[in-house]
Amino acid sequence: MTTHQPTHAHPGHAHHGAAKSTWDYWKRAIVWTVGGVAAGFAIVFLARWIFDFENLWVPQVYWSVCASLAGLGFIIGIGCFDWWWAYMRGKQVDLEDHSMHGAQKWSDYFRPNTDHKVIGIQYLVTTFFFFVVAGILAELVRLELAVPGATIADGETYNGFFSAHATIMIFAFVIPVFGGISNYVLPIMLGAKDMAFPRLNALSFWLLVPAGVMLVLAPFVGSFSSGWTAYAPLSVQGTTGSTLFEVAVQFAGASSIATALNFLVTIMTMRAPGMTVWRMPMLAWAQGVTSGLVVFGTPFIAGSQFMTWFDRVMGTNFFNVGGGGDVLMYQHVFWFYSHPAVYIMMIPGFGIISEVVAAFSRKPLFGYRAMAFSTVAIALLGFGVWAHHMFVSGMPAWLRFPMMFMTVVIAVPTGVKVFSWLGTMWGGRLHLKTPMLWAMGFVFTFLIGGLSGVFLGVLPAVIHLTDTYYVVAHIHYVFFGGSVFTVFAGVYYWFPKITGRMYNERLGQIHFWLTFVGFNATFFPMHWLGAVGMPRRVADYDERFASLNLFISLATSGMVIGSLIFFYNMIHSWAKGPQAPWNPWRARSLEWLVSSPPSLFNFDAVPQVVGGPYQYGIPGARHAVVFAGEELGGGELVEHERRTILVIANESVSSAALLEHIRERANGHWRFTMLVPVEDGNVRAAERRLQQALSVLAAEGVDANGSVVSGDPLSAVRAAVADDEPTEVMLVTEPLGQSRWLNQDMVDRVRKATNLPVNHVVISAAEAGRPAVSKAVNTVAVIANDGLSGDGVINAVQGHADGGPVAAVILCPLSLDGPGWTDDAETVRDAAAGRARDAIARLQQAGIPARGEVIDGDPAEAARIARDSYRATTILVASVAGRGDADVVETVTQAAAPVPVEHVFVETAPPAL
Amino acid sequence: MATDHALAHPPGAVPQKKPISQGVLAMLLFIGSEAMLFASFFTAYFMVRYNVAENHWPPLNQNGEPFELPKVGTGVSTAFLVFSSFTVWWAEHRLKHNDRKGLERGLLVTILLGITFLVAQINEYAHLGFTPADKAFGSTFYTLTGFHGLHVLVGLILLTICYVRVKRARDFTPTFSTPLVMASIYWHFVDVVWVALYILVYLV
Questions:
Q1: Is A732 helix (H, G, I), strand (E, B) or coil?
Q2: Which of A205, A801, A884, B52 has the lowest CB atom count within 10 Å?
Q3: Chain A residues with CB-CB distance to B24 below 8 A
Q4: What pLDDT does B134 receive?
Q5: Can you tell me the distance from the alpha carbon of A720 to that of A705, in angstroms, rounded to the nearest whole number?
Q6: Residues of A in contact with B26 (CB under 8 A)
Q7: Predicted local distance difference test score (pLDDT) of residue A10
Q8: Rounded CA separation A362/A720 (Å)
Q9: Cα–Cα distance measured from residue A831 to residue A826, given in angstroms and rounded to the nearest whole number
């Protein structure tokens, strides 16, 4: 394994020239955007005036030119062309100019950046913003459809809702979000320092921004109601909204093409030595094939939108039958892109799922080559089925059968994929972490989407089902249950790599189940609605569909709440989550062999690829040899160079004593897999302890990961040995006589079961409670007296612990009125100490290391002690519900400044004293 | 150190060939994309011509006469454009012999020929006597030739940048000339598209 934490400076390339602040770029962008609008007006006006047109004011012409020039102006102004402009003028430029590379501070994410990792994050954040916008529009659609009749919108507005929902989701979320994920991980997976064309990469992202903004603005500036397919002649009759849509599609298309070219060249030319195409991770295959589709398909949607645009704005006759045009031609040209586009939106997801399924099943990917070939086959066949969207459009009848045949044939390579994923899972050791849940959920929902697709592909069924809610159900089963599920799988899977922090596993799983159930409850009934004849794209419907529609509208709340939890989890974990190890999933591909997040140029030296990426559980197999940088002494490091020590511990896993022991052993040569077997205890507590231990070790640079397993130590060890090939087992117990494991003769039994040397570490119960001191662990000080006796304090601290590893300090200020040596005072002191001891014990049971003291003094004194002696990061003041204590909180806040103080009320009866 | 493992898969298992330059590869793929853009307009053209007009082509205009295209005049400008492909090839060839003067002249002649073509095209537009709004014939004609004209303009900009680089930055050597190769490939593409367009739209 290599290397080091991010170094954000590259010695060879000091930043050139006067540093510009991000705000400077934006000021220029605003000037250029406004200038673009002004220039658009001026050009059109002058041209019409000079050439003596009768009508100087034709709004759509103005809007077209203004929108195009504004978008172009924005890109120039934000600085995408700065380097090229210098090049064009014949200046001496540095071809390897890295002055725009990497982000040192958060504002660097808001300017053009040539680092693929920064661009990946820019893409992801931007596209998820559009996901929210389009999601709100979807809720508006469901609100309108909740009951029959016009409720919140008339037909025209309703059409605007669903059109904008679909276009934003497709062009500003699903297509580019895969670009974001792949931008971040693909170059690292291939062993490259960056994409082939970093400046083009920056340009692709910034092209997306005006496209997205125009798509969002479109419904506000005039009727835009022809759906995302924008069929002529309806779209030809549209107004300003349609114009913006057409301009936006050109920008989004240019962005996709530029990214796709970049991916293709990167995949073709920048693979690490030894990475043959048959050793590429599946995501590289998928992204390569997708890029091929984008490069050769996207120009067709550009063409179709140019033609509708010209028809409406310039009065051309492409789709005007009266002028000799062909209205059906729109659908041919449009679907020739847009059918492959559904694979553009799906194939990268296939790649992500292949990564996730293999890593979490601990088995080699089943049928690697079949997977690769099926990806290519889907793409090739995808160009031959466009007219299955047009079975009832009145196209030539002879086209129907070949299109139907090809459509059904596509089920074969898709089936190969589904069976390969199932084959990978079959007999694997499934780790049901959030990414894997999304992957398995995806296989389930995508299968339903695929099957309903077969119905829509065969003529007898589709003539009945076309343009009904059956189609709506199908498209959402493949786009949401398909693409979006894979996006979530990918985001959770690579979140530790991208942010360097772990997400909250429990919230992730809640997000999955809410979405999964909400999604199926929303879209499955639509199959039925469609089959019995409810038409799509209509704001009103017959009474007999009312109850199901109300149910569907209510069921969407599952997805809404799930998404809110997702965003909370992402934002909170990014800011405050526990530090992530380099390789939390023990995956094999190259991105997991560098630090989280990776250093500025990913690798210190070019890695050498020596095997396939999915050789899980194959003895001696490995994917790549990674070299250490010169500052680390150079030389070759192998991923298996670091032998694994299996650490089995329970209560003591987060203790200072054990972590100290591990740190001494680590010494750069070992990696540790920590197993916490829980037979009948508190799993949450064990998870908190493990998380604490992993965070402390990660902060110290020790390579460790681990999991909580249910069952006895022996079965856990057997599983882990097969999984992980450890060279040694470290068994941590309490001293002889107190330890249940020793009573069961566990040391000997583990030795016999594994045939490995067992290192027996003894940690007493008292030692086990001593928390490790580390900057990775936040300290929460609890100032409370009577409040300690209930569960309220424990729950409050647990709430903090679920957000990241914390240690607790219980401070019990007595605030005695009289002298402290009286018998009375002694009784009070004893009672307080008893309560504190009790609280500490309960916290430790919950997996939170805790200590504490009773303080002869007032709460303000306790706050100062918490801040100065314990270096608390948060102070909780707990008071019994019903008692004000506002003044106490006030004094504590003042005394503890700048440490934040929270006030919790606990439900407890004050102890009888 | 697990050197024995490493030897089992010796480095360089992939034979090292001299790889194609990334820029040229990207340009070839981009040209594939551009070709598809023209393919979409040609699709429109053929569907209008063969499905709707049933090959009664050229159709009749408002005055009841068939549209007319200047085959001969455009043929001459076609010859200019084809010739410019050879001059840009010659410029590259001179660079291989390290003849910078020849490279400059070759580029300059190519650019002038390209401008000539564009001017001839604009002149043709001015004298055609029909507009993009005149039937689907006018629409497809102007869209195809207009998009081609835009591509000529882009090609000219690329060549001009190369010319500026040669003059002011002393760029390009016999061993490294990727930007120049990219521009010239693009120029050849623009040329090939025009020949196809001239045959399919003007002649056939």
A1: strand
A2: A884
A3: none
A4: 86
A5: 12
A6: 196-197, 261-262, 264-265
A7: 43
A8: 11
A9: 9
Q: Alpha helix locations (H) across A345-399?
A: 347-361, 368-382
Domain-wise residue ranges, chain A: 20-85, 113-576, 642-769, 778-906
Every domain of chain B and the residues it spans = 34-48+71-203
* CATH class name, domain A113-576: mainly alpha
Task: Tell me which H or E stretch contains A558.
Answer: helix A546-576
Alpha-carbon distance of A499 to A576, in angstroms, equals: 11
Q: What are the chain A neighbours of B20 within 8 Å (beta carbons)? A: 269
Helix or strand run (H / E) with residue A880: strand A874-880
What is d(CA A595, CA A629) in angstroms, rounded to the nearest whole number?
13
Q: In what order do the strands lie in the sheet with A726-733?
A: A704-710, A670-678, A643-648, A726-733, A758-762
Tokens 């063969």: give the residue: B50
Q: Is the dihedral of CA A301, A304, A306, A308 positive or negative?
A: negative
Q: How far is CA A807 from the centre of its chain?
A: 29
Contact A701, A1 (CB under 8 A): no
Q: Report pLDDT for A909.
A: 53
Cα distance from B74 to chain A (closest Cα, Å)?
23
Distance of CA A776 to the CA centre of its chain: 23
Return the number of CB contacts < 8 Å for A and B: 163
The class level of CATH for B34-48+71-203 reads mainly alpha
Residue numbers in A near B138 (CB within 8 A)? 316-317
Per-residue tokens: A363: 């088995």
What 3-state class would DSSP assign to A407? helix
Query: Which of A196, A318, A638 has the CB atom closest to B136's CB atom?
Result: A318
Nearest CB neighbour to A197, from listed B19, B26, B133: B26
Structure tokens at A423: 């084959």
A671 beta partners: A644
Establish if A196 touches chain B: CB-CB under 8 angstroms. Answer: yes
Whether chain B has a CB inside 8 Å of the CB on A383: the answer is no
* DSSP annotation of A707: E
Q: Give the whole-angstrom CA distance, residue A391 versus residue A411.
A: 19
CATH number for the A778-906 domain, one of 3.40.50.620, 3.30.460.10, 3.40.718.10, 3.90.780.10?
Answer: 3.40.50.620
pLDDT along chain B (204 residues), means of 10: 40 54 94 96 93 84 84 93 96 92 95 96 91 90 96 96 92 89 96 96 90
| SS3 (DSSP) at A891 | helix
A219 preceded by a cis bond (ω within 30 of 0):
no
- A299, A325, A641 ranked by CB distance to B136: nearest: A325
A316–B contact, CB cutoff 8 A:
yes
A90 interface with B at CB cutoff 8 Å: yes
A326–chain B Cβ distance below 8 A for any pair: yes
Q: For residues A837 and A829, what is the distance between their CA atoms, to the nearest angstrom?
A: 12
Fold equal for A113-576 and A642-769: no
Residue ranges of chain A with per-residue pLDDT less than 70: 1-19, 628-642, 667-669, 803, 817-820, 881-885, 907-913
Rounded distance, CA A857 to CA A574, Å? 39
Q: Is A197 on the interface with B (CB under 8 A)?
A: yes
Cβ neighbourhood burial of A67 (10 Å; 0-12, 13-18, 19+): buried
Closest chain A C-alpha to B97 CA, distance in angstroms: 23
Q: How far apart are the first and last CA of chain A?
A: 61
Model pLDDT, residue A702: 80
Statement: A642-769 belongs to CATH 3.30.470.20: no
A266 and A195 in contact (C-beta within 8 Å)? yes
Say what angle helices A116-145 and A546-576 make with each other, to 10 degrees: 150
Mutate to test the interface with B, among A316, A337, A606 (most CBs of B within 10 A): A316
Query: Which of B9, B39, B143 comes nearest A310 by C-beta?
Result: B143
